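3.2 Worked example (two chains)
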Amino acid sequence: MQRILIRLFTMLITLFGVAVVVFIVIRIAPGDPIAMMLPPGATDEDVARLRALYGLDKSLLEQFFVWFGGIIQGDFGTSISLRQDVLGLVLNRLPATLELSLFALLIALSIGGPLAIWGARERGTSIEAGIDIANGAALSIPDFLWGLVLILTFGVLIPVFGISGRVSPRLDLPFVSQFYLFESFFRLRFDLTKDLLSHMFMPALALALPLAAIISQLLKQSLKEVMDLDYVVLARVKGFSETQVILREALKNAALPTLTLIGVQFTFLIGGTVIIERLFSYEGIGNMAIDAVINRDLPLIQGIVLVFALLFVLVNLAVDMTYTLLNPRLRNA
C-alpha cells in the first residue's frame, strides 16, 4: 500500500510538472492564436475583446492559476478554433487512439513473441542471424515510412485495406460510445468490425513493426540468458523438447524484463500515433493534436498533452504493479 501511495504522489508531481512546462512552452512559441481567429479587417477592440474572453489579457502567472484551477475542477477550458469544451473534444477522440494503440500492441506481440522464441530455439544458426537482420531493418525504418509503404502496397497497388478514415461512412453506425471496435464486436455487428479492422490494420501495423522488433530482440536475449540455468537444464534431462523447455520453463522468467519494456514502449506508441493518424486521416487524438498546433489552439494543446501525460503515468503504474505481482521476490518483499 505504501508503495502505491508513493507512486500516486509521484504521479501528481509529474502531472503538475507537465502542466507547468506545456503552459510555458506553448506561450513563448511564436504565433498569436487571436490574430489567427480574426479576419484581416479586425479592429483593436475586437482583438482586446477576444483576449479578455479567453483570459489572454492577464499575466502568465494569473493565466496559469486560472487554467490549473479549472483543471482541478474538471474544466479544461474552451477550444479557440473549435469553440467547444476541450475535455469533451479530447474524450471524444481518445477511444479511437486507444483502440488503434491496443491493436498495434497486439500485432507487435503476435510478431515479436514468436520471432523471439524461434530465434532462441535456433540460437547460433543462420535462422537467428536472419531474425536479427529483420529486426534491424524494422527498427531502422520509422513508423511513418512504414505507413507510406503500406499505403502504396495495400492501398494503391493491391487495394485490400482502407487507407483513410476510421470507418466507411456508407455503413449504418449505431454506436452509443466512441469505442467503435469493441462496441461492434459486442453488438455482433461483424460487418462493422470487419470494416473497422480494415481501416485500422495498416496504421496499426505501421506502429507495430518497430515495436515488434524491440520485443523480439529483448525477449530473445532474455531467453538465451536463462537457457543454461539449472532448472532449464533439468527440464532437458527430463526429456522435454527444446520448444517445450522454452515455453514451459524459460519463457515465464525471461518475459519479466520484456513486460517492463512493453509498458514503456506502449506509451511511446500512443504518442507515435500523431503522425500515423494524420497520414491515414484517422480520427484520433493525434490527428486533432496536429490541427491544434497548426491553429495555435492553446487550451486544446494543453488538454491533449495533459491527457497523454496521464496515460503515460497510468500505464507505468500498471506495469509496476503487474511486475510486482509476477516477480515472487518483489511480491514477498
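3.2.1 Second chain
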Amino acid sequence: MNTVIEIKNLKKVYDNGFAALNGVNLEIERGEILALLGPNGAGKTSLISAITGIISPTSGSIRVDGFDNVLEYRQARQLIGLVPQELTIGAFDTVWNTVRFSRGLFNRKDDDAYLEQLLKDLSLWDKKDNQLRMLSGGMKRRVLIAKALSHGPQILFLDEPTAGVDVELRKDMWKMIARLRESGVTIILTTHYIEEAEDIADRIGVINDGKILLIEDKDTLMQKLGKKQLVVDLKQAVEQLPTSLSEFDLLVSESGNSLTYTFDASAESTGITKLLSAISQSELQIKDLNTSQSSLEDIFVDLVKKPSTEAN
C-alpha cells in the first residue's frame, strides 16, 4: 500500500478562538478502511471538512494523491466523494436528476449505465423518478451516498453515515463499502457505532480535542491496549473477600457468586497463577473459569477519558 492522503501539522482555529484542529498529522493508505472515532466536538467533522475543501485550514498542509488540496484543489477534489452528516439535498428534484447533476459537477462524461447500477445497488432504482421530498429519511441518506459516488471517486468520506438510519440500510451500506474497498476505493468513516468500526475497519484512529490520540491497525490496537478479564465462578456465594485476596484487584458480583480479575495479557506476568493459588488457600471453591477480551468500545472510552497530554 502507499499513502493517498498526507496531512501535516493541520490546524483550524475559528474566529472565536476555538481550535477545532490542533496539529493533526495523519497518513491514509490507498485502499484501506479507516474508522475515525471520537466524542462529539472532538474534531472529526472539521478534519473531514478540511480534507474535502469545505473549510480552509489555519495552517498545515493536505495532499490528496500528491495534489495540494489548496493550490491544486480541482485535481484533489475530483478524487473525493463525501457523504455528509446532514441531509443536505433539495426537495423538488428527482432522484435521477440529482445524481446525474452531481456527476456533471465533476465534469465527468455521461454514463447512465453506471448511475443505473449505482441506484440499483442502493435500492433506489424504483425511486429514480420520485421527488426528494417524497422520500423517507433513510432513502434520502441513500441519495446522499449515490451523489457522493456519482463521479466514481477513488476516496470516499462517510461522516456518521448510519446515524439515525434503519438496520436494513445500515447492512446495505456495509455491503457496499466492502465492494468499494474490493475495487480499490479508500474509505474514511466516522461513526458512533463502535461495533461497526470493529467489524469493518482496517485501522482505527481516535481523535479528541482536535488531536489524533492514536492511529493503529485494528488487530494490533486490540492486542496492545485491550485487556482481558478472568471471571471466577464460585460454588458458594461470598459476602466479603478473605483478607488473603485483598492484594488482588477483584470485583465481586452483586450475587457474590463470581469474582472478576482484569489483567494485561501481554505482560510478563498476569498474576493469574498466584490468584488461583490464593483462592484455593482461602478455601473458596471454584466452580468455573472464563476469560473475555475487552472490546474496542472499552479501549475508546478509556482513551478519551485521559487528558490529551497524557494520551500523547
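3.3 Remarks
The longest strand covers residues 3-13.
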